[in-house]
């Protein structure tokens, strides 16, 4: 299984052998969401967290403010 280096914590991240550019992987060490930006060698970059931000915005619409 090929590996690359997590840009967040510099640990080895295992990626699927048939990974393609734009695929998403997760660092088992720090839990970062990583996107494949290069294949030869495999290169990983931190994934923009737009999706999670959008989820947070949705939650703001509900009565979900007890934690803040
Ligand atoms: Zn990491």
Written description of the protein model:
Helices cover 16% and strands 31% of the residues. The protein is elongated and about 45 Å long. The protein contains one helix and five strands; from the N terminus they run βββββα. Strand 1 and strand 2 form a beta hairpin. The relative contact order is 0.19. It has one helix spanning 50-60, and strands spanning 3-5, 12-14, 24-26, 33-39, 42-46. Strands 3-4-5 form a three-stranded antiparallel sheet, with no helix packed on it. A two-stranded antiparallel sheet has the order 1-2. It is an alpha+beta fold and 68 residues long. It has a single domain (3-60), classed as Single Sheet (Rubrerythrin, domain 2). The chain binds zinc ion. Zinc ion (ZN) binds at residues 6, 8-9, 11, 27, 29-30, 32.
Helix and strand layout, with pairings?
Blueprint: E1 3-5, E2 12-14, E3 24-26, E4 33-39, E5 42-46, H1 50-60
Antiparallel strand pairs: 1-2, 3-4, 4-5
The structure holds zinc ion.
What's the quick description here?
Helix content is 16%, strand content 31%.
Low-confidence stretches: none
- Beta-strand residue fraction: 25-35%
State the CATH class: Mainly Beta
Structural class: alpha+beta
The topology string of helices and strands comes to EEEEEH
Quaternary structure state of the chains depicted: single chain
**Number of alpha- plus pi-helical segments:** 1
- Provide the gyration radius in Å: 15 Å
- Can you give the helix content as a percent range? 10-25%
Question: Do you know the CATH topology?
Answer: Rubrerythrin, domain 2
Mean pLDDT over the full residue set? 85
Approximate shape: elongated
Strand order of the largest sheet: 3-4-5
Biggest beta sheet summary: 3 strands, antiparallel
Number of strands: 5
Distance between the termini: 42 Å
